[in-house]
What does this fold into?
Amino acid sequence: MIANLYQPINGEIVEIIDESPTIKSFVIVPQSAFSFATGQFVELTLPGEGEAPFTPSSSPTVTEKMEITIMKAGRVTERLHNCAKGQPIGIRGPYGNGYPIDEFVGKHVYIVGGGVGLAPIRSLFLTLVDRIGDFKSVVCRFGARTPADFIYKDALLGPWQKLDGVNIKLTVDQANGDWSGNVGVVTTILNPKDVDIANAVAVVCGPPIMMKFATVNLLEYGFDPKTVYLSMEKNMSCGVGKCGHCMLGKYYVCKDGPVFTYDQVCKYPKIWE
Amino acid sequence: MERAFISRLKPFLDAVAEKMDLYVPRKVEGHYVCERYEPGANDAVELNAIRACTPAKEFLFPLRELAAVFPEAVEPKEVKPFAVFGLKACDLRSMEILDKVFTEKEFEDPFYIARRQAMFVIASDCSEPGESCFCNILDGQPYAESGFDLNVSQVEDGYIIAGGSAQGKSFLAAHAALFGDVPDALLAERQRRRDEVRNQLEKANVDFELRAPVQEIVERGYESDVFDACAATCVECQACTRVCPTCHCFYLYDTAQTDYFAKMKMWDSCMRIGYAAVAGGGNPRKLLGDRLRHRLMHKFAYFLERYGVDMCVGCGRCVDAEAGDVDIRVVLKRLSDELTGKGKAVANKTK
It folds into this structure.
């Protein structure tokens, strides 16, 4: 009998962390060990309610549980936000290609992220940090609407800043409280001198409008379109390149992505919509 | 046994129905639909001149089906062998296209595969092309040469039944008492009839002939105004994709039953406005013209690139079903004319 690719494995929400007014992280324990590569995504089923795609934000080296950071954005995510610890959950996947870490080896990794886009980036960041010696540097430029909207604040403002080989700058669209950092959209903290572009790759993940302008800047700085890696947000449903919802030109984002180089997708119109 | 002759359909259909459920065509208001064959009840079956108005995919990939159960997974139901009589060459091509999607290695759909394996395919030659048939434009023909278990061709005094698979041939051998021999003269008559229908098709579609490979036509017409112009009358009924035998987009949704949760799989349509929308509010194909472009690009460029075949068999069901007068033959023809310079006046007029 062929395995049923639509059947989720069972899991449970064991912990819920408030990250921002609209974002929570859910620690999920699958019934059996669950491996994924960083940047791959899973389909989470809230039984009886619906299913939606998310990229785990935890390190792929941890297989007995995974963390998924979810912004309240639609019907399923709103129901998930109303869940409590102990909620049974279904997990299908992992799906897609993930980040091609081996292609980053020996290079600067320039990561531009915003909002809940920091979720996949966290998993990538933890993966890179695990083998930081393999990369020339890991340079992060992250933005959020307000200081309160930053997710993973504790790590971001503390221990991550102190890691060897890592350089992090943050910005907010609107400052409040005791924010003393940069104010402005994320492109205001991008600088072509941040890394040696000829020996760098860029990773961009965040709201589409942010990705659009960050990509424009990166290309202007001289990044080759083949070295700009984008996490595309589409309506991934089946996860296996059949149902058609996530098609981006000829690609099934669920199967051929969700990580694409700008070079792969730039010929299609409205990629940011 | 390679082929056999029989003068009436009924004994043949009865023999099939003895072994398995059999679905046969019935004419309803000018169209054919499929219904279950009941010996003694609806056994005055006539050979359908063209494909049924419902697509063959219904037998393999039903409108709605149970895809998964939570929290206790259940094995997919076993599918009993069944036969479908009167499938046409375009239907067989459509099933080969669906096979590419649902039997793809490492991504096999167990529900589709179970039904496909249980299906006994009895094809038949088209006897008179329908108004919307245009398989010849896409390298099709009004009779099948492979992809069937049995194929039925009407001749003057009866029917030639040809075996196409081991299962089909052994059916003929097992029921040899029902059949007569097929002399060469009958085969020649079959060929004459086939050629005649093909000629009729070619004549009927002369206005829709394309002047370049269809992939090139849609790819080079990507920026064309033709998509917006042709979509102007579309009422978003989505019938084109529902009746299309190759369209296979589906929607997964979850429901709560009294004692379990179910994940259902249901046909969807890329012509629906919310089809590609994401939770954050983005929607890359808000406009009907963009959705029509995507539908044609998928059929004639993206699918070809991925699987090596077009995703259209020229059955014309979408032309019959359209409530908004969007004729795929016309869209392709206008793009073709634009490409070859003939249709510039049309393109300019729509600007």
Notes: Chain B touches chain A through 49 residues (CB under 8 Å). The first strand of chain B starts at residue 3 and ends at 6. Chain B has twelve helices and ten strands. Confidence is low (pLDDT under 50) at residues 345-351 of chain B.
